[in-house]
Amino acid sequence: MNTFGTRLKFTSFGESHGVAVGCIIDGVPAGVKFDEEFLQNELDKRKGGSKFATPRKESDKAQVLSGVFEGY
Q: Where are the domains of the chain?
C-alpha cells in the first residue's frame, strides 16, 4: 500500500497482475459529487488497441465499493 497526502489522502492497493487494483480516498468533504462515468472514461483511455499502446486485452471496469451514495 502507498499513501499520499495529509488533508486529502489517497491510498492505493493491489497488484498490477493481481485480482484487482484499487484506492481509498479520505478527506473528501460531504456533498462533493462523484462522477463514476468520468472515472470510467479515464480508465477506457488506457485500453490497448493501437500499434503504439500496450497489447494487453484486459477490460478495466471501475467499481465503487463504499463511500458513495446517490452520486455523492
A: 2-32, 33-65
